[in-house]
Amino acid sequence: MPKTHTSGTRSLFTPLCEDNAILDDHCISNSHATAHDLSWLAGVTPNRIAPLLLGPSLCVEDHLWPTIPDRDESLLVAVSTLEPRKNPQFLLEWFLESKALPECMTLSWAGPAGWNLDQGALPVSRGKRHIRFLGMIEDIELCRLYRQARAVIYPSLYEGFGLPVLDALLHGTPVLCSGNSSLMEFAGPGVEFFDPCDSVSVDEAWDRLCLQNLPISRPDLAVACSWDTFTDGLLAVVA
Fold first, then answer.
1. Which domains does the chain have, with CATH numbers?
2. Which helix (H) or strand (E) holds 49?
3. Residue 1 has pLDDT above 80, yes or no
4. Largest CA distance in the chain
5. Cβ distance 229 to 23 under 8 Å?
6. What are phi and psi of 146, to 5 degrees?
């Protein structure tokens, strides 16, 4: 989504896709969806693209937070840079206005300020609902948030992979997730998809999510999205 990036980013990465990728012997993508888009946009034949799914970004072997925190039924967590592609304005308005959510809720947003967005203009509360912008936090604190939250919500307009979705699921926490791009590859227990431009569909996803038992178990992702699997695939490409 070029319009969600700065002109400098567009000028840097557009030639890499349009001019350079077609010349490469092999390309590696971080999802099957990205492999499809690379073939479509850059003309790289599919047999030269190896989709290698990423592993988790934290708690690869053991949880950093030493104890299992109690679930906070009033806590939603979002994890990403604050920038237009992550769709923060939509999420914040839905959170503050939704009639599907309990009256008393907190949305904690972990991640740095980004670009093309005035964080100071974003709402922070309405009634008994409150939004906390945490900025960058340590991995141990992020581990605690993932395990404590009732759910993680990820309303991105487009993704190449979606690390927060993977991380949340591997911490046993369900995810409200945009139904687009690479995010569809996380389909399974603990994931409820919605249209990131339709607040009613988020309400419906929330209602479905509330029927799920916690913690979420996704052994399929623990195998498919591991750094050992990624390394084996990478070695096969360069062999």
1. 2-51 (no CATH), 72-221 (3.40.50.2000)
2. strand 49-51
3. no
4. 59
5. no
6. -60, -40
